[in-house]
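Supplementary Note 3. Input sequence used for the single-chain structure prediction.
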Amino acid sequence: MTTAAAGSPRTYQVRTYGCQMNVHDSERISGLLEQAGYVRAAEADEQPDVVVFNTCAVRENADNRLYGNLGHLRPVKDKHPGMQIAVGGCLAQKDRGDIVRKAPWVDVVFGTHNIGSLPVLLERARHNTAAEVEILESLDVFPSTLPTRRESTYAGWVSISVGCNNTCTFCIVPSLRGKEKDRRPGDILSEVRALVDEGVLEVTLLGQNVNSYGVEFGDRYAFGKLLRACGDIEGLERVRFTSPHPKDFTDDVIAAMAETPNVCHSLHMPLQSGSDDVLRAMRRSYRSEKYLGIIEKVRDAMPDAAITTDIIVGFPGETDADFEKTLDVVREARFSSAFTFQYSKRPGTPAATMDGQLPKQVVQERYERLIATVEEITWAENRKLVGETVEVLVAVGEGRKDERTGRLSGRARDGRLVHFDAGSLAGQIRPGDIVHTTVTYAAPHHLNADGEPLSHRRTRAGDAAEAGRTPRTPGVLLGLPTIGAPAAVPAPTGGCAAN
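The predicted structure, written as discrete structure tokens, is reproduced below.
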């Protein structure tokens, strides 16, 4: 039943597309709605009272995907008066009022800068029986001051900045997320401590360009200092970050990674192209030699480091020789994994109007060759770990075949995916627990460990998972409407009440 009975809370569902930033924004959207009195719809509920689309605008098919899903919802909404549909995120920031023009059954459109307005906009749309569109050009309030309903008991995102000051010609993010805005270190560390107090073991520091962190308050070494400060937080076992930019990556960050015990030896370093000519056209202010020099420094300091990357194939003007240079860098860098993309034209970006747009068949052929090269290397690198002992943080949803194979899954400290046999500990290991096990088999994208685990450590994160609790980090929220009876929130296990 979609229309909530009198006195009962309305239900909601958030559908997320895109990057880690969007995933974390969706946690905030859920936190906002729950603080305003909504309750999350059951997974099987196909008719929640509110459906929120948190959209991405980076990929070429983002528009088609959104409008296709909105079209599927139209008859559902027609049959259930009172149902509301909201669209937020990067595509909403880009398309603005066009969304309501193309899909007039949408009730609310909100942008990347005013997530906190969603409950008010929903209530206003209900009251006025008209669509509400509110897009701000700059941040209304830093998103991390908003309440957040975390999706994991054991791992949490923590934003250190939003926006980006770079001008890559293929990227639409700066125009949708705005210029970089940095949080103060004390606020970040308070949020990290609050998560750890609720049992979280792993934190990922999140930003469009994390190692330019500090630009707003004039400290170019701020990110390395932040990593070291995370090392002083008792109970925080793993620290990761994404994503850095090669042009800003400094030696002090490498030293902080190597010298801070809880900072994982995993690094995501976007390459985009191995051709200096293409990098120049992309307006990426580094060249392949500098990039490989960073990789060499990281491996000198941390020989066990697992380095992942992003690569775009088929950028306008890319020649066969340019593409071969990308393959050369891939072979030299020896990535543990790579996120590979075929260039897609995004209206509003300089690259969209460049000469030399490549035919689809050329891009596809290069893409397939890149995938084959990457997998050859990642498989060889993974095979080196057969027989090694790895520490695995047990996860939920990482292994799609786990139920069929009887395995559990999680991430090693270097970020690699590990599927393991629980052996005699079957039924005792929970998400959030720590297992040590021996790698018995390697594939290009994962490791298997099919022997008896060497050890199993129960954790507070595992306790929370077993009890069905997820961390909530409350924010300061004034004047938001409350819908029906507020959902019950588990009592906090400690930590700060505000970020």
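The mean pLDDT is 87. The chain has 15 helices and 23 strands.
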